[in-house]
Amino acid sequence: MEVFPLLLFPPLEYFKCLKQAKNPVVDFGEHYQKQSYRNRFQLMGPNNLQTISLQVEGLSGIKTPIKKVRLSDELSVNKVIRTLDTCYNASAFYEHYRDDVLEILQIESKLLSTVSWRGIEFMCEQFDLDLPSRTETYIEQDDTGLFKDHRRASFREQEAKKYHQVYQDRHGFIPNLSALDALFNLGNTAQSLL
Q: Per-residue pLDDT for 58 more than 80?
């Protein structure tokens, strides 16, 4: 078993690890970590790197399982979509996937875990990967070596395969962006990067 964190539109390296994992499990019971990729993802914009965050309700010092973290009522999905439009309108496949991503972001649920899981389901479908199983209870770390723990991994590639990016002429190739970047630029051939 290999345990993965629940991330919002994670980078390609996350999906590479999922593809290679034996019995991958996504942990919905782990505690939410502020300033992590649990509620944010990175894209390349016309001026530089863009970090998109989904605002969550205040969690002042309380250890909260990720499955119970609620999205803020002030969340502006329209702002996120405008940012995506600005970043990817010129990409080859953005129009093809835009409505699917919009549907994920606009679901009725107010739980971060629901939005993140729908994003992982969507990306696994596009990359032709088996969907990992999930657990609602926290899996304790142990020293027995019975499972591999990816929950603290940064999912940053040291030598990423290069592909065409929309603003590559301005900024050069930028690795470790959300897997959405590869999908919007390459379409279903993005799975060859895994």
A: no
